[in-house]
Structure formats: C-alpha cells, structure tokens
Amino acid sequence: MGRAFRYGDNVDTDVVIPARYLTTTDEKELAAHALEDLDATFVERVSVGDIVVAGKNFGCGSSREHAPIAIRGTGVAGVVASSFARIFFRNAINTGLPIIECPEAVAGISEGDEVTIDAEAGIVRNETTGEEFKGEHLPEFVMDIVRAGGLVEWVKSKGAS
C-alpha cells in the first residue's frame, strides 16, 4: 500500500526524466531526478510502495527506456493510468515496472489516497475510499517478464534453466 501521486494527461518522457540526465543508465541516479520538471518535490516525498496515477497517454514522447527505469528506481509499486503511450507501455515491461491501465481507477483516486495495486490481476484498490477497480491485466507470460525485473533478467533466468 502506498500514497497516490496524481498527474494529468500526456505526461511525456521528457518530464519523467529530463534529457539533461540521460548521460547515465544508473537507476538510482535517474530516480533522483524522476518527474522533477513536473513535480519538483516528488523525489523528496515519494516512498517505497507509493503509486503514480496519471491520465491518458502516460509516457508519450521519446522511446527512451530511462523513463520507466527512473520511476522504478524511486521504489514506487507501479503506475496506474487511463492509457499509456505504446512505447512506454513496452519499455515498462522491458524494465520490470508494473503498470495497470484503468481509467475508472484514475477517476476514483485523489492525490494522497492510500492505494494498493495487484498488477498480476489488474486490480487497483483505493484503501482510503474502499473502492476497488478492475483494470487491464497483462498476460501471464508478460507478467513473468515484469516479475523477473525486466526482459534482460528474464532472458538471463531462461539461460540458467
């Protein structure tokens, strides 16, 4: 369970992680600057298990994998959005960031609400209001990639077996 950090529509990858920080792929360094051009206090306030909640087309813009890596590095449990830009959607899977597409949850969650997500089932629960929402759940083989920590880790685990 974590607090909801709410953002609007069309949050692009340039505000998720500004281009000036793309000289590294270090997750902790990227996390230190996550969303700073959109919410300068995000990294100071975010805690492990918190949830990013956003409107339509989250992660639009460039195809950089740095964006989901930066978000994952902050320790958030995942991102719930009305919709995701397709490249961000795929990059989130590739980097092991849990995501749930659920417009009803976005409409039913306010900034600071306590939220629990079950990415495997596509369930979002607003613990503050007691409402539960059923979003899109990812297929089992895709969740295997997310659970492994991303595509590279999943491939490594397959090579070991």
Whole-number radius of gyration? Answer: 15 Å
Strand content: 15-25%
Number of DSSP-assigned strands: 7
Largest sheet: spatial strand order: 4-3-2-1-5-6-7
Helix content: 25-40%
Number of helices: 8
Span between N and C termini?
A: 33 Å
N to C succession of SSEs:
EHHHEHEHEHEEEHH
Question: How many structural domains can be distinguished in the coordinates?
Answer: 1
Summed over residues and divided by their number, the pLDDT gives a mean of 95
- Major beta-sheet overview: 7 strands, mixed
CATH topology: Aconitase, domain 4
Identify low-pLDDT runs. none
Q: What is the CATH class designation?
A: Alpha Beta
SS content category: alpha/beta
Query: Mind telling me which CATH architecture this is?
Result: Alpha-Beta Barrel
CATH superfamily: Aconitase, domain 4
- Using the alpha-carbon principal axes, give the shape: globular
Task: Please characterize this protein's 3D structure.
The N and C termini lie far apart (33 Å). The protein is 34% helix and 18% strand. It has a single domain (2-160), classed as Aconitase, domain 4 (Alpha-Beta Barrel). It has a seven-stranded mixed beta sheet. It is an alpha/beta fold and 161 residues long. The model has no long low-confidence stretch (mean pLDDT 95). It is globular and about 40 Å long. The chain has helices at residues 13-16, 27-31, 42-45, 66-73, 86-95, 103-107, 140-148, 151-160, and strands at residues 2-6, 51-54, 78-81, 99-101, 114-118, 123-126, 131-134. Helix 4 (66-73) crosses helix 5 and helix 5 (86-95) packs across helix 7 (140-148).
